[in-house]
Amino acid sequence: MSGLVLKLGPKERVLVNGAVIENGDRRSRLSIMTPDANILRLRDAIHPEEATTPVRRVCYATQLVLSGDVTPEDARQQLLRNIEELSQVFIDHDSHTHLARATEALLGEQYYQCLKSLRALLPREDRLMAHSVQ
Predict the structure, then answer these.
(1) What residue spans define the domains of the chain?
(2) Does residue 15 contact residue 27 with C-beta atoms inside 8 Å?
(3) Long-range pairs for 91-94 at CB < 8 Å and ≥24 separation?
(4) Is 51 strand, coil or helix?
(5) What is the pLDDT of residues 70-93, one digit of tens each?
(6) Model pLDDT for residues 49-65, shown as the tens digit of each residue
(7) What is the pTM of this model?
(8) DSSP characters for 64-96?
(9) Which distant-in-sequence residues (6+ apart) come within 8 Å of 21 by Cβ?
(10) What is the DSSP letter of 42?
(11) Which residues contact 5 (CB under 8 A, 6 or more apart)?
(12) 109-119 as b/e: b if 16+ CB within 10 A
């Protein structure tokens, strides 16, 4: 079993099962062996005031599960609906692949992997939003 590998920079913080852990002065690498541990890199976290677009809102809702602020049971159905809604907008093959991975991870209760797949859509969403403003 390989687990999740986190590569942390100096002083980087990560949330593990609700506890904030700060790395020391050097780069390090951690292997998380517990399969159901909730992990969130704080540098990747979306703050509530930044959850202003559809993908960012779904990412933020997924983060709430990882941080322990929302139970997986309470979030699952809404997250599935939100991912389905995103699939109506992101119609290209690559985006559908990310959304399928996010759904699969969500159903498997792998919320970190779900968030990772959803975050891959952020640059696309930014491009779409910039294009719609012009």
Answers:
(1) 4-43, 46-133
(2) no
(3) none
(4) coil
(5) 999 999 999 999 999 999 999 999
(6) 999 999 999 999 999 99
(7) 0.85
(8) HHHHTSS-HHHHHHHHHHHHHHHHHH--SHHHH
(9) 13, 14, 15
(10) G
(11) 29, 30, 31, 32
(12) ebbbbbbbbbb
